[in-house]
Amino acid sequence: MSKPVIRQFLRFAAVGLSGTAVQYACVAIALALYGKPATVAGSAIGYILGSVVNYVLNYFLTFGSGKSHVEAASKYFAVLAVGWCLNLGLMSLFVQHWDWHPWLAQVITTGIGLCWNFTGSKLWVFKEVSAKAE
Q1: pLDDT grade, residue 128 (50/70/90)?
Q2: At residue 105, what are phi and psi to the nearest 5 degrees?
Q3: What per-residue confidence (pLDDT) applies to 134?
Q4: Are 27 and 46 in contact (CB under 8 A)?
């Protein structure tokens, strides 16, 4: 992997901390108010809220995109829809079926989601079309 890609991944992960903070706050609230069974729903809601924050920051800071928001946002939220399904499915599996501690499940799920979201964003959402391809 090239150094620019590694730097871009690190910026993506740093930006993702803001969305992760929103998601984890939702998990903490769900856990405090309703207990372990509510963590899956809290995680799912937090993922959606955090993704809005992350889109704006990634558009400008991570990828410096020149694409229209109609194109970039529609692709970004398509990638994140798959990520949301991964998050929901993994949290459900880990917490409800395997009886893992909710925070362990959320941290592992976050790491998997980070890899999925970066790959989709880099290779599809914010990929710049070369002049030759136009």
Answers
A1: confident
A2: -60, -45
A3: 46
A4: yes
Q: CB–CB of 109/90 below 8 Å?
A: yes
Phi, psi of 32 (to 5 degrees): -70, -40
Q: CA 54 to CA 52: how far, in whole Å? A: 5
C-alpha to C-alpha distance for 36 and 25, rounded to whole angstroms: 14
Contacts with 104 (C-beta within 8 Å, 6 or more apart), sequence order: 94
Q: For the range 104-113, what are the long-range contacts, defined as Cβ-Cβ under 8 Å and sequence gap of 24 or more?
A: 105/39, 106/23, 106/24, 106/27, 106/39, 106/43, 109/43, 110/20, 110/23, 112/86, 113/47, 113/83, 113/86, 113/87
Q: Give the separation between CA 110 and CA 112, rounded to whole angstroms.
A: 5
pLDDT digits (tens, 9 = 90+) for 40-82: 999 999 999 999 999 999 999 999 888 999 999 999 999 999 9
**Do residues 106 and 24 make contact, with C-beta atoms less than 8 angstroms apart?**
yes
